[in-house]
């Protein structure tokens, strides 16, 4: 985090100066890093936000004890991860039941999410070769919703198109049977549960890293300085002069 703010500050300073490219030594850069003060409490909250949002229950509990951060409800994380796992494994009906057990209003107030979960149920029926059941489910559960919403109808038509192909690899909508489709549905329901629990639906840490990369790319145009190429190690590399 301190590196991010250092890059931003340096970028502002350099853009206010001449257009010539400036060279910043490691010593100068590390001094700038040390001058940026970030509260440990804020860093702990950033880490905890990541653990909670991504559902790392054991890591969150261990970090809570070690860092002394505020109490978290581990049960809600566990329940949310059970929903996500159910969708990822194709057991959508069970996932819907679990969501309703958590908070019935989540699906009652989010027709798009409910439709996407029902669409995923239809996809799983088709995947398992339950053609008659799939047709009946599409007609009784999804068609009425499609009549009320044009985007729902288009999604339904794409999904039903899978039934017209013996070899789904030739179907334009064949990607619906990819695991990525399950992950997409799981991510959507995970975000909805987080929102219902007054949590942010996306972790802050990845966004900060993206901002760091953006800031470094901007600063590269103006200066040569020690910067991070490998985010996993956060090791500073000397500038190429």
UniProtKB/TrEMBL annotation:
Q: Where is the CTLH domain?
A: 76-133
One Pfam family matching this protein: LisH
The record, for PROSITE patterns, names: CTLH (PS50897), LISH (PS50896)
Which domain of life, per UniProt? Eukaryota
SMART domains reported for this sequence: CRA, CTLH, LisH
- What is the protein's name according to its record? Putative transcription factor interactor and regulator LisH family
Source organism per entry reads: Lupinus albus
């Amino acid at each position: 985090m301190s590196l991010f703010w250092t890059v931003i500050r340096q970028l502002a300073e350099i853009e206010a100066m001449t257009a010539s490219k400036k060279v910043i030594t490691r010593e100068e850069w590390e001094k700038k890093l040390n001058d940026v003060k970030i509260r440990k409490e804020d860093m702990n909250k950033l880490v905890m936000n990541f653990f909670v949002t991504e559902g790392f229950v054991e890591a969150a509990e261990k970090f809570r004890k070690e860092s002394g951060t505020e109490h978290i409800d581990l049960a809600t994380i566990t329940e949310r991860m059970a929903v996500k796992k159910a969708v990822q494994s194709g057991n959508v009906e069970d996932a819907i039941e679990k969501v309703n057990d958590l908070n019935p209003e989540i699906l009652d107030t989010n027709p798009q999410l409910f439709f996407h979960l029902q669409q995923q149920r239809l996809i799983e029926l088709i995947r398992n070769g339950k053609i008659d059941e799939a047709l009946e489910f599409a007609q009784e559960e999804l068609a009425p919703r499609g009549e009320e919403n044009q985007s729902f109808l288009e999604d339904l038509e794409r999904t039903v198109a899978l039934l017209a192909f013996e070899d789904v690899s030739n179907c334009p909508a064949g990607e619906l049977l990819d695991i990525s489709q399950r992950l997409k549905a799981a991510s959507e329901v995970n975000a909805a549960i987080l929102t219902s629990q007054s949590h942010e639906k996306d972790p802050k840490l990845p966004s900060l890293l993206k901002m760091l990369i953006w800031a470094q790319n901007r600063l590269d145009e103006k200066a040569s300085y020690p910067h991070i190429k490998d985010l996993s190690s956060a090791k500073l590399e000397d500038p190429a002069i």
